[in-house]
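The protein record filed below.
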Amino acid sequence: MFPDLTRDDVFRIETRRLWLRWPTARDAEAVSRLAGDPAVARMTAPIPSPLPLHEAEDFVLRARAGNAVGDWLIMALCLRANPAQAVGIIGIEPRPEAEAPHLGYWLGRPAWGEGLMAEAASAMVEAYFAYANGRALASSVMLDNPASRRILERCGFVPAGQGAFFSVARGETVAADTFRLDRAGWLDRRGRAS
């Protein structure tokens, strides 16, 4: 799915305030602590709370392996002022049940409210359509997560329906809205921004 350009761990995406880079072994502790925070984990499907360190280490290894072969692109969010410290994760991964790859993300609570995830999501969407020549992206948000909904809407995603998924942290199935952004919509937004 992703080209050779992204398949080396020196690849990074720079934004005004962020570096998006491959996760490394040293990020496992931050992933465990930040993603395992109940306020963060409950807004995701796969993350438990707490998130044991060994599971965060496994996540980093899987992310790097998938990045290396181009199956997906999972990046650590780091402030440009401190590129060694991950504050969140963002990724685009295929989903067997979906027709389009899925954009997913989380941000550690200390970095909430600063617009960092919108900046990261915009950069990842750009990378997917520009570098990978992507056709469409999908994403979803739990109904009680308006901040994530705003991020998707800012990136040009449009509502595509409703669904539900099991949240490990909540221990229950949660209602969600699904979103989609196709290449034509991305190109249209780029044209209007020029």
